[in-house]
Amino acid sequence: MICPSCGWVNIPGNEECVNCQQDLTPLDRPMASNCVERSLMEDDVAHLHPKKAISIRPTTTLHSAMQAMLACEIGTLLVTDEQGKLVGILSERDLLTKVAGLHDSYAQLPVSDFMTPGPETVETDDPLNFALHKMDGGGYRHLPVMTEGMPRGVVSVRDMLRHIVKLCKT
After folding, report:
1. 64 with 131, same domain?
2. CA-to-CA distance for 145 and 39, rounded, in angstroms?
3. Which segments of 22-85 does DSSP mark as H helices, in order?
4. Can you say how many angstroms the Cα of residue 150 is from the centroid of all Cα atoms in its chain?
5. pLDDT digits (tens, 9 = 90+) for 78-92
6. Helices marked H in the chain
7. Pairing assessment for the beta strands 55-56 and 76-80 based on DSSP bridges
8. Total number of domains in the chain
9. Which domain holds residue 104?
């Protein structure tokens, strides 16, 4: 990268000019080239209007959890303790990989035996690209959205996809 102050040719990735110590980090930021890239870089998770989280306790039975998923037409439940702190997440994938075909009598078993403990989360003010990167890197379809350490909602890959499709139509 060429330093705008002194013209020195620096190695790509240098945070400051080797010659004059000019800060180069603002010059090395990616630039959006279309509305989708702009939104992913500049809009935050709150822009997706996260769905209200449906929470259950770790002692909730799998039967009750599945009934809640069906009744609310959702693919994931947040598992919280008595203080409302997030301790896990129970998803359709958990039911398929940890329950289906592996347990004959599962209905009365506690969610805590099958949930994913300590799930990845995002904050409402995190950029969309951060959430998308977490989803892609971890193979998650749902991310709990936190505000001040408490779960406030859930965003899904489908939410992200709908947002991107809407941007492409404009």
Report:
1. yes
2. 18
3. 35-42, 62-72
4. 15
5. 999 999 999 999 999
6. 35-42, 62-72, 92-98, 128-138, 157-169
7. parallel
8. 2
9. 42-169
